[in-house]
């Protein structure tokens, strides 16, 4: 009994003031949202600290939520204490538990699907719902933070221990996965699980937002190379394959939680641009200078090539710096198979070191540009929701 009392007292001393817990939950949920979304764009091992931070903060949420429930849990269990805002509190709790539990199950290695959605996708959905719920919930019982609550070594030690405990717990879990050879043992640093085999059937057809374009008629398909090139050109599928013949073994890491290494073949983007006369240097596009055209590519006579934008048949698009883009591949085959429609056929972008949503599917336009395209981020959020059925062209 004495040991239990001592442990209880130690835990009580570790618990921050109520106001600190409440504001910390909001701050950590916001940080989790930011690190989670940014992690979608990280595909090289150098970005591993971001993923460790995200997972450590996730375990910190568990502790903060425990402190919160130990203080207010009785209000949820006693119907007589319910208020008008209690329903919002319950909904926020469900989103929090859903976010944390699906994240933990995914890290352990559980791989289940709900229609097209993986457990990781469900985790992301819960997380995106949690942030506004926590913000609204905080506003119903708004108590501004006090400086005194955040001063002193005690608070710094408490939060330092939270982060350290989270990192240690995640490292221990990795060791357990390896020791028991669970499905989570083969994950990349991004959390993605392997998909073995070659060709179209080796990895799943996944969707980004509401991907579902109609199959493309190969006979009518045309690939345009436009913008800051010597001469805009169009290529049929056979022309693309004739210009190509390049092959590369590249890892595709999809944001829905899987990765695969495949042999992709098609045409190097730099060779495709060269087939259009190459990029223009100073002086812009010869014979096509002037105002911006219908395709949104500048040609004011002073632009210098800096980016290449890949546009899907659906309007989805992504840009790469020109040096990176020239070494990327516009693939028409995977594992010796002609690229299936679900994987982006007749042609999709293969961009080493980039995540799957940046590998634009069903590419119909390659544009050499002088400026970035910030609107591409908007496209990733609204793709697939228009009434005309022009769904997005991204994802793994």
From TrEMBL:
Superkingdom of this protein's organism: Archaea
Transmembrane annotation, as ranges: 20-42, 48-67, 88-108, 114-136, 156-172
GO-annotated molecular function: oxidoreductase activity
Residues in Oxidoreductase molybdopterin-binding domain copies: 215-377
Keywords, sorted A to Z: Membrane, Transmembrane, Transmembrane helix
InterPro entries hit by this protein: Mopterin_OxRdtase_euk, OxRdtase_Mopterin-bd_dom, OxRdtase_Mopterin-bd_sf
Compositional bias ranges of the Acidic residues kind: 283-303
Disordered: annotated span: 185-209, 278-303
SUPFAM superfamilies: Oxidoreductase molybdopterin-binding domain (SSF56524)
Xref: PANTHER family: PROTEIN-METHIONINE-SULFOXIDE REDUCTASE
Protein name per UniProt: Oxidoreductase molybdopterin binding domain-containing protein
């Amino acid at each position: 009994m004495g040991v239990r009392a001592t442990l209880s007292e130690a835990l009580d001393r570790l618990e921050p003031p109520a106001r600190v817990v409440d504001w910390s939950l909001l701050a950590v949920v916001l940080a989790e949202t930011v690190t989670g979304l940014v992690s979608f764009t990280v595909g090289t091992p150098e970005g591993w600290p971001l993923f460790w931070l995200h997972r450590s903060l996730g375990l910190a949420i568990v502790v903060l939520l425990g402190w919160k429930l130990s203080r207010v849990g009785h209000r949820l269990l006693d119907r007589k204490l319910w208020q008008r805002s209690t329903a919002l509190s319950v909904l926020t709790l469900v989103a929090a538990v859903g976010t944390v539990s699906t994240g933990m199950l995914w890290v352990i290695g559980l791989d289940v699907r709900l229609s097209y959605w993986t457990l990781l996708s469900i985790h992301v959905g819960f997380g995106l719902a949690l942030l506004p719920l926590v913000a609204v919930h905080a506003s119903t019982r708004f108590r501004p933070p006090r400086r005194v609550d955040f001063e002193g070594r005690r608070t710094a030690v408490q939060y330092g221990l939270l982060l350290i405990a989270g990192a240690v717990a995640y490292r221990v879990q990795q060791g357990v996965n390896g020791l028991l050879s669970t499905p989570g043992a083969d994950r990349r640093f991004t959390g993605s699980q392997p998909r073995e085999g070659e060709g179209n059937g080796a990895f799943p057809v996944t969707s980004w937002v509401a991907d579902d374009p109609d199959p493309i008629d190969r006979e009518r398909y045309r690939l345009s190379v436009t913008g800051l090139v010597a001469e805009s050109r169009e290529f049929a599928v056979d022309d693309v394959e004739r210009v190509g013949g390049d092959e590369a073994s590249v890892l595709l890491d999809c944001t829905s939680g899987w990765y695969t290494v495949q042999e992709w073949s098609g045409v190097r983007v730099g060779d495709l641009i060269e087939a259009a006369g190459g990029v223009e240097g100073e002086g812009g596009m010869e014979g096509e200078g002037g105002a911006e055209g219908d395709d949104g590519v500048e040609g004011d006579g002073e632009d210098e090539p800096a980016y290449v934008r890949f546009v899907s048949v659906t309007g989805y698009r992504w840009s790469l710096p020109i040096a990176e883009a020239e070494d990327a591949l516009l693939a028409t085959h995977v594992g010796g198979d002609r690229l299936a429609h679900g994987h982006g056929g007749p042609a999709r972008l293969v961009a080493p070191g980039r995540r799957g949503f940046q590998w634009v599917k069903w590419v119909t336009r390659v544009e050499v540009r002088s400026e970035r395209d910030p609107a591409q981020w908007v496209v990733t959020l609204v793709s697939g929701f228009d009434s005309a059925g022009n769904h997005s062209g991204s994802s793994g």
